[in-house]
Amino acid sequence: MPKLRFIRVLLHVFVGVLTCALIFPFVAAVKREALVKRWSLQLLTLCKVKVRLLDQSGGQIPDHALIIANHVSWLDIFVINSWQACHFVAKADIRTWPIAGWLSAQAGTIFLARGKQREVRRIYEGLVHQLRDNKRIAFFPEGTTGAQGGVLPFHANLFEAAIEAEVPVLPFALRYVDAQGQLHPAADFIGEMTFAESMKLILQSDVMTAELIQLPMIPTKGAHRREVAQVSRELVAKALGVSL
């Protein structure tokens, strides 16, 4: 029943707030990452979203890389976090969202304000240092969510951080399918749809499976950011069966 599931989601969010406020300040980073991973998986379960990790990387171990993926829904962050907890780069206005913005900040989200060059440069330098310190940084190079069945152009700017930090890019392709393996329409979070409308649609829908497809790592040594962005987009599109 959607109302009951919605109440359970709200309670789970409240548990997340308490965890961030009362536990995060007193535990090590490894423990925080484990808590984020578990909380994300539980949230997806409440939303009737199963996660299936598919490996098309040839068995490469993602030890030290900048993680990118196509962007379909607000669910994407939790799908990736259910695999490995990451520090995401997100638009600064998300920080102002009630509860969700605060939770994102506590989970290590890096907020990027467009148009403020000094702040952008400061955050960019921070990304380079974090990548060199072997932290998992992830972002969605499309810059916004797009309907399934297509892949929007990738913005190249943040790929420069991987080049400067001398780490590869680890791309993922992400899609949501129904029991028949067809793209699930309830996952799309596009246009003027609000977060509440998206949540309601997901909770009213049948079970969906989030397929997180790990692709081969892309070396960045001596590369240009636009080249790396284009190769990343082509790999993601190919994995999704999308023609660019």
TrEMBL record:
CDD domains per the UniProt record, alphabetical: LPLAT_AGPAT-like
Pathway: Lipid metabolism
Stretches of the chain forming a coiled coil according to its record: none
Protein name (database record): 1-acyl-sn-glycerol-3-phosphate acyltransferase
GO biological process: phosphatidic acid biosynthetic process
Chain ranges of the Phospholipid/glycerol acyltransferase domain: 65-177
A Pfam match: Acyltransferase
